[in-house]
LysM domain-containing protein
Amino acid sequence: MTYTGRSRLADFTRGLGALVVFLFLLVGCPVAMYVMGGSPIPDRIPSWEEVSAILMRQDTDQSVFLATIFLIGWGAWCLFIVTVCAETMNYLAGRSRPVLPRPVRPLQQLVRDLIATATLTFSAAASLATSASAATHTHVATDPHVAAAPEAGSHEQSSPRQDTPPREPTASEWTPLLADEPTAQPKPDHHAWRTHIVKRGETLWGLARHTYGSGDLYPNIFKNSRQIDQPDGIPALTDPAVIRPGQRIRLPRPSAPDGPSSRSQAASPGAGAHATPSDQGKKSDARTPTPLRPTSEQSTVSPVPSPVVAPPADHSASPAPSTPNDQDDSDSPLAISLPSGSRIGLGLAAALSVAVAATRLHRRRRRPLKIDTDSSEHIPEPPIAAPVLGARKAHLDTYVVREAPVPSDPELVREDLLTPEPDQLVVGTRDGQAVSVPLAGLSLGLSGDGAHAAARAITTELLAKAHRYRAEILIPQADAQALFPGDEITDLSTALDGLIIKPSLREAINHLEVELLHRARVLDMTDQPDVAALRAEDPAEPLPTVLLVASIPADDARVDALATLGCRFSIGVLALGAWTSGTSVELASDATVTDTRGPNAARFTETRLFHLTTGDATDMLRTIRTATGTETDATSLRTSADHVTEPEPRAAVTIVPPPRPPEGAPRPPVRLEVLGDVRLHTADGPIKTGLRQRARDLLAYLALHPDGVTRDRASADLWPDDSPGSIVSTFNTAVTNIRSVLRNATGLSSPMYVVHSAGRYRIDPDVVDIDLWQLNAALADAQQATDDTARIRALTLVADRCAGEFASGLTQQWAEVHREYLRRTVGDALANLARLLQEADPERALMVLEQAITCDPYSEPLYRHVMRLQARLDRPDAVRRTYGLLAARLDELDAEPDGETRKLVSSATRALNRN
């Protein structure tokens, strides 16, 4: 008997013993007490005189004592029955928290343990029976049309053919991916329903025709999908004629395509699952086995679990039915392909988007004010790597597709404050759907050419989400260098609490065992069943999910034990190499699963995992580190020797003198606003319809180039992902749309609005007035002013015209570059205006500084400027309120005011108290 067989036999023995004890307590105890003491229910109710006489006389025959013992026994048995009923109701209601008073909870725990152990009798018996059956059969046919496997010892067995279907593990080989979950192999359910994410161009009629074989049956899908909870930002399904990209609906799971009843099922909606018309005409081929597919809802696909990532829409039409082997998953809307060859998910893209936002806010926080009137040149900051910016744009584009407001950097950081601990991780896609794994209790091994790239993507995503005690990566030094060569991983470990690098695997395991003991003590003190329940009860307890990423030798008993207890204690294992204790996945060089073994093999069958190149991972780790606020000049400017960071795209990063209208010229009939949302106005009000998004992008871009720009340069910056053959048509369509909309709105057909001259396109200043040009004119006047009076007048105009950030709804990199530049320039201008006003009019100077803080609420030098001025005006309470406001802002970044600010507050408060 194998070790697994002995283990199953031991489980069966323990379960049988627990079942005997449970039946004795449930039936044997009351029978024994009834035989020895009779019924606990008296024939009649005794009078008070009889009770007094019995209690007052001497108990020589021990009858009172025995009656008391029997009464206590019957009471304990009744309490046992109540506890069993309470546990049954808890199980049926899906509750895990104790509902009985604390003195009864030990009995409740005993009942739980007895029932859980007793169930081993049935599961182990089924496993032993299946093991015995599997031992007597050399080949298992999963389909009547599948060819038999080669016999043992044959050449085909040592070199498996590509068309041989993967063998399902027997029960004796079955060990769970989540060690605390049941080990029973899921049974096929041809009447189950699956969750489908609506793609652009799909209709309920078309989906019904594809699944049922008849579009007339679409009400069945609508009826079963109305009660599904939709993701944040996605409307509920209320009208069968209107479905939106990103909505979730339920479709019947297709039955076996080559089964004998495929055609009859397609004609009957009551079957619950149907073959497609293309499948009905196919003939079986013994040499082409039907691929094994997951059948349970848990082992299929799930949407991206991220609060800042809304389910995206697919821009393509609904694909024609195809076999899984023919399905190309490279264009999945849940996957992002980077130019370097990396392929990441929207979960990592969202986390990097937050990291970019935090990096920018930290830089704004530390950037010193530039109030030198002789120069306006800004200090360039280290550029953010192109792969990170590409991932950020892909994330922000999901908002554009859903026609939702694009969040600003502060909004992204505030949303991140509400993000819970990750309990699921999307690791890849299959057939355009996300494939996810649970983190708590994860027991997964990655091997093959693409193993390190896939492990790199998983680790990087968790590191991006690890701040605020959400997750923790534990990795030995050798494996850390194998996944992330260079110094970035070491630098990140000193800045991020969620990354722990140990010198060896032994020390990593020792650290994990100490953490497990700590968590066991915490659970025991709080009387919680697992870490997940403890988090729900006390969210402030810092117990993040810990993932061990390491190359683990075969049959490592310590790691096996940790993986077994992982589900309860929120611990997971990601093995770099073959993994016999859980699910093992073999990957090709492009991270496509070529072979999978273990309890959840079906979950990864025909899946393509996300993967990262070394260079992209290095850039992402650098951004994750700068997002913690620990950036220094030396580390931020350092790049890998074999990877050069791509420079920022071209953008207007200087003040371009705008055209000035002549004196007495009439007011232009059109006004373009690009400070805030991009909007067009006429004398009759705002233009709300007709203007396409690409036309808005072009207007904002041309507003940055009053002297004009060539079509090629504008197209390259605006639409870098478009094919060269379509750029000319796209640009011309946008210009045509601008002219048509403005002519219809103004009634003026003669102006061109967008003028083409000498190969350059520009906005006609005679008919279009732009708020950005007015702001730039005021900034230019302030630079050219020769005395403080003229400078104050020009800077006052700057304060009046800074209505908002540049093109707040645009996600292109050129817009973000100028947005940051304009924020710096306006902040410096307002600080300079306050410096010029503080001697003669300190109250007005305070108002200007408050306006500057509104424009840049994370600039710590601005707050210090305000506090110095408040101290001069003898306002200690105002100084403390300003410091409190700064501390609250920086708390969003997981940061605190620096020593200079704290020293300023202390000295100002002491000086004012002495006075």
Q: What stands out?
A: The longest strand covers residues 424-430.
